[in-house]
Structure formats: C-alpha cells, structure tokens
Amino acid sequence: MEDAGKKKKKKDNNNDDRVTLKKEIGLWSACAIIIGNIIGSGIFVSPKGVLEHAGSVGLSLIVWVCGGGICVLGSMCYAELGVTIPKSGGDYSYVTEIFGGLVGFLLLWSAVLIMYPTTLAVIALTFANYVLQPAFHNCLPPYAATRLLATICVLFLTWVNCSSVRWATRIQDVFTVGKLLALGLIIVVGLVQIGRGYYDALVPSAAFEFRQDPSVGQIALAFLQASFAYSGWNFLNYVTEEIVNPRTNLPRAIYISIPLVTLVYTMTNIAYFSSMTPEELLASNAVAVTFGEKLLGMFSWMMPISVALSTFGGINGYLFTSSRLCFSGAREGHLPYLLAMIHLKNCTPIPALLVCCFATILILCIGETHNLINYVSFINYLSYGVTIAGLLYLRKKRPGLARPIKVNLLIPISYMVFWAVLLCFSLYSEPVVCGLGMVIVLTGVPVYFVGVWWKNKPKWIYRLTERITYVGQKACYVMFPQEDPAEAEPLTASKATD
Prior knowledge:
By secondary structure, this protein is an all-alpha fold. It is built from 21 helices and 2 strands. Helix 7 (143-163) packs antiparallel against helix 15 (350-366). The radius of gyration is 23 Å and the shape is globular.
C-alpha cells in the first residue's frame, strides 16, 4: 500500500510539472483582456472617421451605441462557441473545427498577414505620437522618431510576454485601470461642460443637421470605422486554455466588459462634442489632445500621457492574444510547428510572440498604416460573420453536441442579417477597399495547397524545415506542450453520441 501511495504521489508530481500553457487568467484578468484589447487607439482615432461618414453628430452617436450592441450579440455567440469548443485560437479554431482546414487557414492567413500586425502598428504609432506630442507642440513629431519609439515599445512588451504570462496579465490589469481612468477624466470634464450649458452640438435640431445627405453606404462605412474601435471584443476566446474555469469566467467576462466599453465609448463621444464643434473634431488629428488643450488648461499634458498609457496596454493585449492565434495555427499544422512550442520554464509561446513582433515592425517600416484601417475592419467583419455562420451550421449539423451555454437562435440570425447588410453596402460604397480585402484573404488559397495540403514535398524541403525547427528550439529553449485531455472533453465526448 505504501508503494502504491508513493507511485500515485510521483504520478501527481509529474502531472504538476507538465509543460503546458498555465491557467492564470481569472475573471478580473479576463475582463481586463477584453477591455484592454478593445480600448486601445480606436476611441482616439475612429471618432473622426465615424463622424465623417455618418454626416451628423446625432447619427454618429447612434452608430457608436449600435456598434456596441452588435458586439454584444456577437460576443454572446462567441461565449457559446468558446465553451463548446474549448480551444485557444478563437475564430480560427472554431472555423477550422466546423468548416475544415481551408476556411480556417484563410482566416488565419489574413489575420497573421494583415489584421493583427496592422492593428498593432496603428496602436504603436498612436502611442508614439501621443508620447512625443508635448515635445513637438506646434508641429507633427518626426517620422523617424515615431517609428523608432513605436518599435522600442513593441520590442519591450514582446520581451515581457516572453518572460512571464503573469507579468503580461498584470500589465494588462494595471493599464486597463489606467485607460478607464483616462476616459473617465474625459467623460467627467465633458459632463461638467454639459452642466455649464455647453451642449449646442448635442441639441437634437443641431445634432441631426447633416453636412451631406446620408446614404446606407456611408452609414455602413461609419460602422466599419467604429468596428475598428470595438475590435478586440472576441480576443478572450484566443486564450481559452489559459482561463481559470472557462465555462464560468468566459461568458461572465464578456457580459461585464462589452456593455461597459459601449457605455464608456458613447459617453466619451458625447464629451468630445460638449467642447468641440463637428468641424473642429474633423480637423483634429489627435482628438483627445485637442479636447485637453481646450478644457484642461495647464493640465492639458495629462491627456497625451493618458492616451499613451491606454495604447501601451492595448499593444500588450494584442501581442498576448494574437501570439496565441499563431500558436493555435501551428498546433493544427497550418503554420510551422516551431510556432506551436513553448518555453520550458516560462511556459510562454516565444516563437509565436517573435513572429507577431517582427510582422508588426515590418508594417511599421513600410510606411503609413492608417489607410489600412478599412481593410482591417472589412476582414474583421468577414471573419466574425463566417464564425457565427459556423455556430448556426453546428446547431443544425450536430444538435446533440454538449453546449454549456446555448443562446437563442434569434441572436446569431440578427447578427448575420446586420453583417450581410453591412458588407454588401460596404462593397457598394468602397469596392476597391473591400475588393483588396478579399484579395488579401484569397492569396492564402495557393499558400494552403502548397504548404498544408501538398504532403509529398521533396525531401530537401522537410530536411530544411527540420533544421530550422531544431535551430529555433535551441535558440528559444522551447518544446511542444503536453496536452491536457480535459480540454477536449466536451467536444470529443459528444462526438460519440452524434
């Protein structure tokens, strides 16, 4: 009996020492990931684009509220998918599981190639611009200086994420509080202005005074601009395997975070209009700085610092979650296997983090990234629609699948109707932008057939791949994580009964 006890204890110790992704994301950190990823640079960049396309203050505020409502519908669907298919990787993992490798790879390809590096680059440049703004009060910061500072920030946060999951989540927690305080300052100052009677632009007769006749196509583009500010609402699903008790904490975090962000965004825009005319907002390249200069006087320096803190936390959140997408893609065999390895001691996906870092720096070096926001928003909405269509398909194809959360069918159907209308009118209004977005996605088709589907490649290609993997393993001190069978229980158990 004593020997048996020793053997059991030894077995338990071996399980404790298993090299796998750590479950260190509790409810608060889960909320911080969602809020921190959504609130990055978007609320300081997108108000101008939303107002420009909406054509009036009132309609732009409606777009912000409805944009948050659409995110709530989508996130409820993602909550069901997240606990039904409990894998890290978010959209990619769900689409691959439901529709197969090609569709999943196209989503992965567009995300790794353009979506997340571009979004990270935009946030990093916003961070650099706001940090340098006080030093270049009467002119734009130098091009080289902003690129250099943005690169240093991305490199530093990559190092933090490579070193420790706990450090990365703590940074996310702290800077999420910081960015909420920054937006809270804007909201409070705006409410004080309204209380003093400065709300001319918000009076209904003025708020719905259109600069141009509104069209459905322009409203669709306004929603695309707002979607950039709301992007990141689905990022918690990328780290499902690192959440403590995901069946409970995943949906709770979604239901807490997204309504809160919607409220904050709407109130922030109301605050902007309490002190700035629509013409002033459209003329400003740094809305929060203009707001601070008008209302905070000698304390106007607080605004660029607050925005810098917000974007710093946004960069950290995007690095943390997008690296898990690369990790999940490599684990499925859709990316080089080296990207599916984690550090032996830190249990962090270092190769995947380095790929995200270098892709972002490459985008930074190419030049102007703000023109790519519409491409990113279009591809984002495309991936959301395909994923939620997968939920409807899975409901029909496998009704007996274990679903700890099951949303009403009207929710995904409502989202899909909105999604279809938005994309159709976006294609009509901006065929070049949306067409190039589709081209970016479809360039992944030949890559999939050559890199994934073609199994009988020449031996020298396999030898070269193995050599690169070996060198990468030694350089990064990484290995394949050991799987936790419990992660697949809900899905595999139900397969037997379907």
